Amino acid sequence: MRGQPSNRISEKGLRVWRLYGIIQTFFVLLVAIGVGVLTYIFEWQWYIYVIAAIIVIAYAYFFVYLFPKIKWLRWRYEVRESEIELQHGLFIVKRTLIPMVRVQHVDTSQGPILRKYNLAGITISTAATNHEIPALVVEEADDLRSRISTLARVADDDV
């Protein structure tokens, strides 16, 4: 078995994933507040407040701290002349090899949060599916898109 792919995504990606976790935790907090208000109005058992608080704290721990860290540590990629290798996963680590002859086109995308951190994602399209490298510095993403496009063109010419 080959070693791990050599390249990591940007460390700023960890901050972006944590920001996504904070936004999601905010919505979980709103639901917990709603449950708390209902508990007060209908005079339900007091431990419902405790359960709601534990859920919010656990959700924040997992989705703001733990899962983004594990996800960032596992995300790796490598572009070779004949293939692209991706490795990612939270509980199950998935490794994917994409032959260059299968690459149809490569896109970069950037939402408002990625733009704030000067990051972009790359989507590699094949006939069967799309693969994404999530958080690269914009210049690195543009260079990688151009390199994959060039290598895919050469691979098509060889077929």
Automatic annotation (TrEMBL):
Look up the domain of life of the source: Bacteria
Location of this chain's protein in the cell: Cell membrane
YdbS-like PH domain residues: 72-148
Q: Give one Pfam hit by family name.
A: bPH_2
**Chain ranges passing through the membrane:** 21-41, 47-67
- The UniProt entry lists the main location of this chain as membrane
Q: Membrane topology for this entry?
A: Multi-pass membrane protein
UniProt keywords, alphabetically: Membrane, Transmembrane, Transmembrane helix
UniProt GO cellular component terms? plasma membrane
Please provide, alphabetically and separated by semicolons, the GO molecular function terms listed in this UniProt record.
Answer: ATP binding
Write the protein's name: YdbS-like PH domain-containing protein
